């Protein structure tokens, strides 16, 4: 065997444009709205279920409250991450390159190929169009 095909991860970067920045900001704002709605719904659900459980069995209230507190903490962490992402995006200048989700490509390797060069490839995208392949 003197060749082998493998899947290799490829870094995808987007050049930040006004359009992309607005799109990403809108996505973050929508996600923040969803998280805020989920936090509000969780609070209402927690109050109702804890009050209901208190009438039935007071000893079961503490574990139930802990469960709701854990869900609240998880959502609060998601909210904080979104706010940090929004702040970071706001500070980025137009033209900056931001890393996007990684993709895979099929590569045929031969004996003697430079593995560093094979693994170091990336794609640069601007406004949805590929503008460069880099090694």
UniProtKB/TrEMBL annotation:
<dbReference type="InterPro" id="IPR021297">
    <property type="entry name" value="YlqD"/>
</dbReference>
<dbReference type="Pfam" id="PF11068">
    <property type="entry name" value="YlqD"/>
</dbReference>
<protein>
    <submittedName>
        <fullName>YlqD protein</fullName>
    </submittedName>
</protein>
